[in-house]
Design a protein that fits this description.
The protein has helices at residues 14-66, 107-120, 127-137, 150-153, 166-172, 184-199. By secondary structure, the protein is mainly alpha-helical.
Length: 209
């Protein structure tokens, strides 16, 4: 029985072989062209992508530089020391009283001391008026006494520098002086107080008063 499996196949002719070869060559050329085109298209795309990425990276760097640096934290302010309490001023001592004037224990000193007492009590009189009347009445003797006039006859003799009787001395005694009629200063002050009330001042007395 004859084998017919390969009876349908026939050997191609020379023309057909050439046509097939040309067709195959065209397919290869088209494939190569496509590969070159794909390769050419991918390179610019990557370059473009890189170029696009570079500005973005530049912008990121610029943005990083534009961010202000964090402000330095100021050092804590020192805590002020508590105020020192003011020193309590020492109490001002009371002014010392003026020392009492020193008066001589003689006629001049007695008159001057009596004048100071009289000024304190607004009793008029001058050194000259007092001195003149003392010299007429007792010649400056603080123990002088009149035992012969009318006052002596009544039992109230005149005594002291300005010859004052006891009732007159008691009535016109000046505060701050002794109650002793024989005390020179007390005697002068009481006599001048009496003369001021009766005559206006011892300065106006020129005779017995």
């Amino acid at each position: 029985m004859p084998d017919i499996r390969f009876s349908t196949f026939r050997r191609p002719s020379l023309r057909e072989s050439i046509a097939v070869a040309f067709a195959a060559a065209g397919v290869v050329a088209v494939a190569a062209s496509s590969a070159v085109s794909v390769a050419d298209d991918s390179v610019p795309s990557r370059i473009a992508m890189v170029a696009d990425e570079q500005p973005a990276a530049s912008h990121v760097a610029e943005a990083a530089l534009a961010v202000p640096a964090p402000a330095a934290i100021p050092a804590p302010m020192p805590v002020p020391a508590p105020p020192v309490p003011a020193a309590v001023p020492a109490p001002i001592p009371a002014p010392m009283p003026a020392p009492a004037p020193a008066y001589a224990d003689n006629l001049d000193g007695w008159i001057r001391q009596a004048l100071d007492v009289m000024r304190a009590h607004n009793i008029p009189g001058t050194y000259e008026g007092i001195h003149r009347n003392i010299m007429r009445e007792s010649t400056g003797n603080p123990q002088a006494i009149n035992l012969w006039d009318s006052n002596a006859a009544m039992g109230i003799p005149s005594k002291g520098l300005l010859q004052v009787i006891d009732p007159t001395f008691a009535t016109y005694h000046v505060e701050g002086t002794s109650w002793d009629i024989w005390d020179p200063v007390a005697n002068i002050a009481a006599a001048c107080n009496y003369a001021a009330q009766r005559y206006g001042s011892m300065d106006y007395v020129d005779s017995a008063y």
